[in-house]
Amino acid sequence: MNTILIGIAGGTGSGKTTLADKLIDSFGDDEVSILRHDNYYKRHDDMCYEERSKLNYDHPDAFDTALLCEHICKLKAGEQIYMPVYDYSIHNRSEETILVKPAPVIVLEGILIFAEPSLCDLMDIKVFVDTDADVRILRRIIRDVKERGRSLDSVITQYLTTVKPMHEQFVEPSKRRADIIIPEGGENIVALDMLIERVRKHLKNK
Ligand SMILES: Nc1ncnc2c1ncn2[C@@H]1O[C@H](COP(=O)(O)OP(=O)(O)O)[C@@H](O)[C@H]1O
Ligand SMILES: Nc1ccn([C@@H]2O[C@H](COP(=O)(O)O)[C@@H](O)[C@H]2O)c(=O)n1
């Protein structure tokens, strides 16, 4: 199978997940598979919740990127993989896994995927979702309080101590590696349609 890997990067709250979900919703499971770098956050079973909540989750070392690369190579070779599942409410991987089948198009999304040369080398198309920092933090506050079991204070403290400095050190400079920069992400219908057309073209010629 001729498989292409489309990377969708961007800062927290930029709209990567929304864009990736809208893209895969336009195709069948046998046409497009999705991987999320967040699911590859390292396990920390040796620490208690309090200790885990203080870790820096915005540095490249927080992820098991070697395992993700191995999974991408297996999918490209036509093998299925079991993607780990991350549970933000406990700051750890859950016991679940998700079966991901090989497909002609694999979408990979995550804040730091362009900051990892080993991952960049595996990508055929690199898309960066670019959204202003004030919009991103407002979205993140709402999402983390509603969906990730966080308090307002914890979101603000984490943003100022790790999320913002790591964004400036790693995420923003990684934008230079992108082939396409999309303002605002999932609600950018023009950009979404262009991506859908690109995937259709690949599926027709695969
Ligand atoms: N263009 C947009 N306008 C308004 N809200 C948006 C937009 N894109 C995403 N959101 C919302 O912002 C939050 C973060 O978006 P998400 O796609 O999860 O971002 P990311 O994966 O980059 O962190 C979600 O609650 C989502 O519904
Ligand atoms: N235990 C964790 C693990 C990660 N995060 C934050 O998630 C952000 C990445 O996810 P997005 O959907 O926002 O791209 C990242 O900025 C980490 O700070 C967390 O809060 N807790």
UniProtKB/TrEMBL annotation:
Residue limits of the Phosphoribulokinase/uridine kinase domain?
Answer: 5-190
Q: Which InterPro entries match?
A: P-loop_NTPase, PRK/URK, Uridine_kinase, Uridine_kinase-like
Q: Name one Pfam family in it.
A: PRK
This entry's Enzyme Commission designation comes to: 2.7.1.48
GO BP of this protein: CTP salvage; UMP salvage
The GO cellular component terms are: cytoplasm
Q: Which GO terms describe its molecular function?
A: ATP binding; cytidine kinase activity; uridine kinase activity
Q: Where in the cell is it found?
A: Cytoplasm
In which pathway is this protein known to take part?
Pyrimidine metabolism; UMP biosynthesis via salvage pathway; UMP from uridine: step 1/1; Pyrimidine metabolism; CTP biosynthesis via salvage pathway; CTP from cytidine: step 1/3
CDD domains, alphabetized: UMPK
> Does this UniProt record's set of keywords contain Manganese?
no
Q: What reaction is this protein's catalytic activity?
A: cytidine + ATP = CMP + ADP + H(+); uridine + ATP = UMP + ADP + H(+)
Q: Does the keyword Nucleotide-binding apply?
A: yes
- Which residues bind ATP per the record? 10-17
**Which family is this protein grouped under?**
Belongs to the uridine kinase family.
Name of this chain's protein: Uridine kinase
